[in-house]
Amino acid sequence: MQIRYFAWVRERVGLEQEELDLPAGIQTVGDLINHLKGLDDNHAAAFADQEAVRVAVDQEHADADRPLAGAREIAFFPPMTGG
Questions:
Q1: What is the chain's mean pLDDT, rounded?
Q2: Phi, psi angles (nearest 5°) of residue 27
Q3: Sorted alphabetically, which InterPro entries does this protein's record hold (predicted)?
């Protein structure tokens, strides 16, 4: 699965993107976040405050309970503001 990081999430993780083979137990966005937090200190820092991170599954905004079945790309980014 392609994982992409944007803005300060990318800075904390230290990667723009990575390709991961996920363990069988990873079924939802929330499961994925918990898995990523356990990879290393950088990932743990990026996801320390999960409320401050937004996610898109195949370029559609998603919540933590969104299933990952069939997803090709997951993107993590901070909340956006604009005018």
A1: 94
A2: -110, -30
A3: Beta-grasp_dom_sf, Mopterin_synth/thiamin_S_b, ThiS/MoaD-like
